[in-house]
Amino acid sequence: MIILDTHIWVAYVDDPGSLPKPSLEAIRGRRDPVGISSISVWEVFMLERRGRLELRIPARVWVEKCERLALFHFIPVDNTIARLAVELPDPLHADPADRIIIATALSLGATLVTRDRKIIEYPHVKTLRLSTSRAGGPRES
Predict the structure, then answer these.
(1) What does residue 19 show for φ and ψ, rounded to 5 degrees?
(2) Which of 1, 26, 92, 130 has the greatest number of beta carbons closer than 10 A?
(3) DSSP letter, residue 71
């Protein structure tokens, strides 16, 4: 299973052309569901409210449509994930949403798909980094 970081989920659904073709294929070619942490839903609503994210439709409707897609499996923040997010070894920044997304991936033994440099460089989680250039493809680290 892979877990999508919030920005990757939004780009994949709302603007797949912004992701490199090999990266799109890595997500679309999955036989297992693509995991989305429920904290990413919270982030989408918060970003919309703060004016930092503009979707073509209201976030409430956008999330409801995503919930109906068989590709995505939404993973609630349970007690284990909450504990792991606090216990993550340093060095890691203090962003609670990122910590919960990383803990979600770790709890499931999943690979996290992200463009976030801080997460990519974090040695305790397996990542599939999406290249920012269209020529580059996914890289597992």
Answers:
(1) -100, 145
(2) 130
(3) T
Element (H, E) at 112: strand 111-114
CATH code of the domain covering residue 135 = 3.40.50.1010
Asked whether the beta carbons of 78 and 39 are under 8 A apart, the reply is no
Residue 138 confidence (pLDDT): 44
- What pTM was computed for the model? 0.88
Number of structural domains found in the chain? 1
Burial environment of residue 114 by CB neighbours within 10 A (0 to 12, 13 to 18, 19 or more): buried
Q: Give the structural domain span for 109.
A: 2-140
Radius of gyration of the chain (CA): 14
Summarised one tens digit per residue, pLDDT across range 79-104 is 999 999 999 998 888 899 999 999 99
DSSP for 28-64 reads HT-SSPEEEEHHHHHHHHHHHHTTS---SS-HHHHHH
**DSSP conformation class of 19:** S
Residue type, 21: K
The structure tokens listed for 80 are 């284990």
In Å, how far from its chain's centre is CA 55? 17
Type of residue numbered 82: A
